[in-house]
Amino acid sequence: MNKVIRTFFSVNKKVVFLISFLLFILVFPVTAADLDLDQPEYHSFELENGLEFMVFPDHSIPSIKYSTYYNVGSIDEKEGQTGISHFLEHLMFMGTKNLPEGEIDNLITSVGGQLNAATFYDFTFYYHQVPAAALELAAALESDRMRNLTFDQQKVNREREVIKQERRMRVDNNIFSKGFEEIKAYAYPDTYLEHGIIGWMEDISNITTAELKEHYQSYYSPNNALVVVSGDVKVEAVKKMAQKYYADFKPAAIKRKDFKFPKEESEKVYTLNLKTNLPYAFQLYQIPAGDQLELTAVEIFLDILANNQSSRLKEKLQKKEELILASAATINTLRKESFAAIYFIPSNPDLVETAQQAFDRELKLIFEEGITEQEFKIVKKQYQKSLIFSQKNIDSTAETYAINKIRFNKPELLQQKIEYMNNLTKEDVVQIAEKYFKKNQRTRGYILPEAKGGAQQ
Amino acid sequence: MKKTYKILSLTIIILFLFTFGAAAQNQNLSPEFFRELADIVNDEPKIEIPDYELFELENGMKFYLAQDKSLPIFEVKGYINAGQINENKNNAGISSLMTELMLLETENYSEQKLSLFKEINALSLNLAAGFDRISISANSLSTESSELISLLAEVLQRPKFEGDHFTRTVKESRQYYKHQFYNDSALLNMHFFKNLYGQHPYGYNYDYDLILDFLAEVEPTQVKAFYRKTLRPENIVFAVSGNFDLDELKQEIKSKFAAWENTKSDLNKSYVSVNPEIQQKIIIINKEDATQANMRMGYNFYSNKFPKKIPFMMANRIFGGGSISSRLMQNLRQDKGYVYGIYAQTKYSDYGGAYFINLSLEPEKALAGMEAVKEEILKIKNGTEKFTEKELFENINLYNAIYPKAYQHQIDVLDQIVYQKEFNNKSDNYINNVIKQYNGLSSEEVQKIFAEELYPEIIFTVIVGPAEKIKPQFEDAGLEVEVLENSIPN
């Protein structure tokens, strides 16, 4: 019997396929499957001084990641002090009252560990990737520099030169970064998003040691921090370290500035000319704070519009009409209102205007005709895949939960997003996108080759 | 008795308070205390070798299959034993163009259909042309493993080179290579490697003018001919790890690849010839708008067969492997504040290699930076500041900590096994042998090998930056430099 079935299947593949397909269509409407994610096992606790801890045990290898997040970034900076959060991040490696310069690196290196840090728009984080046996060392070092950092004028000035060098290398010497920095500043003047994370060169040159110290004292307090330990660790061991090294720290009053982000009422356009053969076109749109679930729909919309291989911009503007070379879009999620950026690279400088018109046409088409079931299904499938693959690495899972905690005090925002996505329809996606991607609420920016000169709009 | 009880209770309370107080108050965080906490020696790790099955088709195509049921995923890494080494002066860049086109369209799937097939099944597939071989990387959820195998079969066996996608891709590639002339790092790569590798395919691949010449004339038939020459089943090997049924997968592989026949072709390969004319030479590529002097100093080095790779690797970690505690970082960043980062690296390939140091600094400090690098080289070469046992221990300790993390996932271990067995004739236990070897090193041995293989007298230097600010420093120091204008193609 089996043989008969096998023969039938092999000979009549086409017929079988057709029948199966019809059956499939009849039984299952073409809808996207529900997303699902096994929540990782984690524990959280808080000390009396407000310092919070999250522990993500995974005993597969004898290694841990000890991360400290501070709820301060470039959006918290004062005028004239842009880049101070990043500057302070550099100083955190320079020494404390208890340890001379270089010793933090030396100690971590000596146990076979690695350490680094990064400053973002709305938080700063430090991490040690160390053998599991070095938990206490990491806790002691982080607690020490949370309270005992030293500010030596000479060392500050030397590090200032390194930071200026970093800015020249990463921003001034990079067409894309330099252009984007200017366009964003034009889009959001006098707001917390006017400047980039690294700050303006003039401010980096003028920030004083006293200002750095004040910034440290204002924001590097236990009640403005989160410690996350992932890897081969037991929650009880972390609790013990928390008591031992942080319990007697005093909380501080955190003063936040007034975060103004006025709604754009009319479209703005900014053009700059740089030494490049390729033009770049940016579209910046305002979006709400990153814990708004509607942003999930915005992400889906941007994937369908610009990111997927089968996205509208890639299929039509790049492959069919050959107006652009590439397209991409991203949302810059923050604890406050922020922006979504869509960019494309027109195929040559003479096609900037045509490409822009085609972009606007595609946008209009989505708002008028909606997205297809297939487009919606693709995004959900890819999202499901990324959720499953993310489980390969406990450190990146911990990072997702930690960022949602430090930004919004919602560590399980990811679960909420999944639930939200499962209830979302393709019509919702378009309706939400229409709300945020209005022409009169955007800034267009262009980087054009110098030789061509002038804006082409 | 009551009194005794009271005293006892009081003592316990005092002891408790004292203990609790000690735990809660700030520790005596002296440097010695931290040193004690850091007294950690990591065990020599042992990487678990996956239980794999080698499944070989009659056409010579090989699959190393290892199940891993921990997650519902399916991962593939692989190699095609051909690449840029098979190019010549008249078709420089053809491997990259070919792999790019292979991913776009096949005989059975139009460009649109292929990208839809990939996305609707959430399949990832990438091909990357390297010097000696083309690497393959793919993954999917385990529910779509059959679709992924089908995709691999389509892309590898039935790519289509004629069509709109060809014209568009060539046009896009030309724009891309023209753009390299505006990018400091790309210019540095071009002028360093095309000189270092000279008239060898490795060098052609960094000669963007040569590649642009080829792209201006290329026809689909040329790419197809190159494909036929290089893509043969006997040249292809895969590592497959994930949640799959072994028998079903073998059947699937057989049905998709067994009929693929080998074609006859000779792939000539030759070693890089060292060009003595570039030794000690300093070239400035004038890029007036650059805010940096982007510099690379180095020389031709050994091929993959270099027997002292492991001790050299550990020595280079101490010297300039990128960590903040390396000698170069200590001197040029920590002491002098010249650079944000500096690193020294080896590039081993089958037919030649390179050793070089990369740094980026203010144009006015270019000479000072270059001298500081040479100063560090000479300290080791002349033995005035030999590597210490402590420096070596720290790096061994680091590697012992990071190896388990680097090989945490089965696919990465299997990938390394496949590569080392197939192309370097090593055993399954290659990773553990490396671990054993670096753990057995002494600082004397590492110092000796590194000092022997450092050749400051033949260093070739390329600097990309504003010549107006860079050149005078060298002239004042009596050093000869050649300034080349950055001639941007139309």
From TrEMBL, chain A:
InterPro entries: Metalloenz_LuxS/M16 (IPR011249), MPP/UQCRC_Complex (IPR050361), Pept_M16_N (IPR011765), Pept_M16_Zn_BS (IPR001431), Peptidase_M16_C (IPR007863)
The entry's keywords: Hydrolase, Protease, Signal
Pfam families on file: Peptidase_M16, Peptidase_M16_C
Residues in Peptidase M16 C-terminal domain copies: 206-383
BP GO terms, sorted: proteolysis
Family designation: Belongs to the peptidase M16 family.
Name recorded for this polypeptide: Zinc protease
From TrEMBL, chain B:
Pfam families: Peptidase_M16, Peptidase_M16_C
Stretches assigned to the Peptidase M16 C-terminal domain: 219-392
Single Gene Ontology BP annotation: proteolysis
Entries under SUPFAM superfamilies matching the protein: LuxS/MPP-like metallohydrolase
Entry keyword Hydrolase: yes
Signal peptide start-end: 1-24
GO terms for MF: metal ion binding; peptidase activity
Residue span(s) of domain Peptidase M16 N-terminal: 79-203
UniProt keyword terms in alphabetical order: Hydrolase, Protease, Signal
InterPro entries: Metalloenz_LuxS/M16 (IPR011249), MPP/UQCRC_Complex (IPR050361), Pept_M16_N (IPR011765), Peptidase_M16_C (IPR007863)
Entry annotated with the keyword Signal: yes
Domain of life (superkingdom): Bacteria
PANTHER family registered for this protein in UniProt: METALLOPROTEASE, PROCESSING PROTEASE
Protein name (Swiss-Prot/TrEMBL): Zinc protease
Species of provenance: Halanaerobium congolense
Lineage, uppermost ranks: Bacteria, Bacillati, Bacillota, Clostridia, Halanaerobiales
